[in-house]
Specification:
The chain contains 4 helices and 5 strands; from the N terminus they run αβαβββαβα. With 129 residues, the protein is α/β, with parallel strands linked by helices. It has a single domain, classed as Ribosomal Protein S5, domain 2 (2-Layer Sandwich), CATH 3.30.230.10. The protein has a 5-stranded mixed β-sheet, with helices on both faces. Strand 4, helix 3 and strand 5 form a beta-alpha-beta unit. Helix 3 runs parallel beside helix 4.
């Protein structure tokens, strides 16, 4: 069981967990947005893989809907982990329309919304310190 858990960890991005880490990314990071998501990115020391934090507020829906969106966001991040900026902390914020997208298109819709933001991030150059 332990080996299986570690095998999946190689493709899954690390997570942000502390409030202070989220606050630093919000205050000092750069952001790109679309109708469904906002992606904040902040560089950190070292060339480690990106750490990802998720924020899904009550405007998205009740607990069941929020958990569904969070699960799909985690899966989309795992699919696109290679495209997440190395050496950055990333926070994804779900906008209220993300729930409608999750219901209509599921993982494919959420993954495409994330792809769009990652393309914008790559085109914007290096984020400010």
């Amino acid at each position: 069981m332990t080996e299986a858990r570690h095998a999946g960890a190689a493709r899954r991005p690390r997570r942000l967990s502390r409030s202070a880490e989220f606050d630093r990314v919000y205050r000092s990071g750069r952001s790109v947005a679309n109708r469904f998501l906002v992606l904040y990115s902040f560089p950190r020391e070292g060339g480690e893989p990106a750490r990802v934090g998720l924020s899904v507020g009550r405007k998205v829906g009740g607990a069941v809907e929020r958990n569904q969106v969070k699960r799909l966001l985690r899966e989309a991040c795992a699919l696109h982990s290679a495209r997440l900026p190395t050496g950055h902390d990333v926070v994804l914020v779900a906008r209220p329309d993300a729930q409608e997208l999750a219901n209509d298109r599921g993982l494919d819709g959420i993954a495409r919304a994330l792809e769009e933001l990652l393309a914008k991030t790559a085109g914007a150059g290096t984020p400010r310190p």
